[in-house]
Design brief:
The chain is built from 23 helices and 14 strands. The chain has 581 residues and is an alpha+beta fold. It folds into four domains: 4-174, Hypothetical protein af1432 (Orthogonal Bundle); 194-336, 2-Layer Sandwich (Beta Polymerase, domain 2), CATH 3.30.460.10; 385-480, Beta-grasp domain (Ubiquitin-like (UB roll)), CATH 3.10.20.30; 491-580, Alpha-Beta Plaits.
Length: 581
């Protein structure tokens, strides 16, 4: 456990504006407040807040955030109150501690609430100050490092699952790759220890040869770049057991085929050097087709930047390489925390955080949407997809997820534009609203005051904002319309795995969402799947949109067929007239 002087000296290495007296006071306050408490491991409770403060120090965060790390459990677990913290440490620290306390209160009710509802409340609690989320992630990281001390196996699994599903993705979304990797791997250790042990055994076997390979290949790469007048620093990146497990599952490869457990990170002095080094490496060694990704010109959605490539290296084996500048490397390690620069003060200019407007978008969706399951769906769409960048006719840049459509573009510009869209032009050509957009596209949306958004757009849009707006439009329309007795008759095409119980599961979902099944047609059958048409009936479109949301979450393959009943009615009229004649 770090003492007060060691913690302060660690902070002084990067923050020359630190006020040591405030940190010393917070340290002493935490020790006093928790003096009679013990952790599940039997250690003094104060070990935990000090460890959290140490993690925040490694992220090089400001003194208010580190003070919050020291005090984050005092309001919840001790005699301290919000007013006490405010009086002793000021309103900024008191508000941060209060925000973390509210999230901790949610975790204690995790069994009562759904995952979606907990996520919803967490985002609300952190929306005012991103530092609340940074403290909470540090808190969760230390709790995961010490999770073996919890005797209740079910509780360990619940905490690990929540970490894997909520906190690791949030760390990823904020660019903190190192913390994300550790959270995932610690959760994996609890949730699937057998698989993790198998992978670790495989890693130990490979490592015997890897260390020598890494040193010799690094030497070759360093000298090659130096020969081309490029200064570089090369570090190794060892993959975690969970990242290897995810790769095995995604690519359907066997564990024996995994050989590239260490990636090469080449740190360079400028962006020009990154691209020059890439050319030098590709000229010297054969690159593997399809493995090159340029995240410098097109950063990931979490603002991560690097050039990624794979080559057949001097050892005749595949080598994964990342090329980046020092600034990019710092961001890859610290993520959003790298914005604290400490040039003129330790206060952060929040205008620098414009790339984190995803949090504001989530809050907007959350406040206007009542269904927490929808919110979780929108959140995943909003947070975890790569970007394309398109332009309005006036040259403004609109950032959208990959495979987004002009419908997403319209709603990103303004909700009213999306609600009244009837067509679009992409790079001067008239194209359907469901077309996929690509980097650099110029998009013009054509609107009409007499039009309204189609419910069928929900299945083709990629942004949570667009889907939320479409659903909200029709929910509002239903409450305002004077003809509540109108019956909607959608038709659902769905391909189901040929397994017992799956058809019943879908039928149950339809019933739970208060839709009637008027007819079911089996269209096709293969060895693995059966394709059906479900003819449905409802008086409330909200029920149908809820069903679509649940089918998406369960990853069923389906599509909405437009005007199916109108076609059937047309043919019925023809045959009826034919019989009369």
């Amino acid at each position: 456990m770090l003492n007060s002087t060691e913690l302060i000296n660690k902070i002084k290495t990067y923050n020359r504006f630190l006020k040591p007296d405030t940190l010393s006071k917070a340290y002493a306050f935490a020790l006093k407040a928790h003096e009679n408490q013990k952790r599940a491991s039997g250690d003094p409770y104060a070990v935990h807040p000090i460890a959290v403060a140490d993690i925040l120090t490694e992220l090089k965060l400001d003194s208010a955030t580190i003070a919050t790390g020291l005090l984050h459990d005092t309001i919840e677990d001790t005699y301290a109150t919000y007013e006490t913290i405010k009086k002793e440490f000021g309103q900024e620290v008191a508000d941060l501690v209060d925000g973390v306390t509210k999230i901790s209160a949610l975790e204690n009710k995790a069994i009562e609430n759904s995952k979606a509802e907990n996520f919803r409340k967490l985002i609300l609690a952190t929306s005012k100050d991103i530092r609340v989320l940074l403290v909470k992630i540090a808190d969760r990281l230390h709790n995961m490092r010490t999770i073996d001390a919890i005797n209740d196996g079910e509780k360990r699994k619940r905490i690990s699952k929540e970490t894997m599903e909520i906190y690791a993705p949030l760390a990823d979304r904020m660019g903190m790759n190192h913390i994300r990797d550790e959270l995932e791997d610690l959760s994996f250790k609890v949730l699937n220890s057998d698989a993790r042990n198998l992978i670790k055994e495989r890693l130990e076997t490979i490592k015997k040869n890897t260390a020598l390979d890494f040193n010799s290949i690094s030497y070759d790469i360093f000298n090659l770049l130096k020969k081309n007048s490029i200064n570089s620093k090369i570090v190794g990146r060892e993959k975690t057991p969970f990242s290897i497990w995810r790769k095995v599952q995604k690519k359907r490869t066997s564990l024996e085929q995994i050989t590239d457990i260490i990636g090469f990170r080449i740190i360079l002095e400028s962006i020009d050097d990154c691209y020059r080094s890439l050319g030098v490496l590709h000229k010297e060694w054969q690159c593997i087709p399809g493995k090159f990704k340029d995240y410098i010109s097109s950063p990931k959605i979490n603002s991560y930047q690097s050039l990624h490539t794979s080559i057949i290296g001097p050892n005749k084996r595949p080598i994964e390489i990342q090329l980046r500048t020092d600034q990019m490397h710092e961001f890859a390690q610290r993520g959003i925390a790298s914005h604290w620069k400490y040039k003129s003060s330790e206060k952060l200019n929040y205008s620098n955080l414009q790339e984190y407007d995803w949090l504001a978008d989530l809050v907007e969706i959350l406040e206007k949407n009542q269904n927490p399951e929808h919110f979780l769906e929108y959140t995943k769409l909003q947070m975890f997809q790569d970007n394309v960048f398109c332009f309005t006719p006036k040259g403004s840049v609109i950032k959208l997820p990959r495979d987004a459509t002009p419908i997403d573009f319209a709603y990103a510009v303004h909700t009213h534009i999306g609600d009244t869209a009837i067509g679009c032009e992409i790079n001067g050509n008239s194209l359907p609203l469901q077309s996929k957009l690509h980097n650099g596209d110029w998009v013009k949306i054509i609107t009409s005051k007499k039009k309204s958004p189609s419910l069928h757009w929900i299945s083709t849009t990629k942004t949570g904002k667009a889907r939320a707006a479409i659903r909200r439009y029709w929910q509002t329309y239903e409450t305002q319309t004077k003809s509540p007795k109108k019956i909607f008759q959608p038709t659902l095409w769905i391909s189901l795995p040929d397994r017992p119980g799956v058809l019943g599961q879908v039928s149950t979902l339809i019933g739970q969402n208060k839709l009637n099944i008027t007819k079911v047609e089996m269209l096709n059958k293969t060895k693995e799947n059966i394709v059906f048409n479900f003819f449905l009936e409802t008086r409330n479109l909200k029920n149908f949109t809820n069903l679509i949301s649940e089918l998406k979450q369960k990853e069923f393959l389906f599509k909405i067929i437009r005007h199916q009943n109108k076609k059937n009615a047309f043919f019925k009229r023809i045959f009826k007239n034919f019989k009369k004649k």
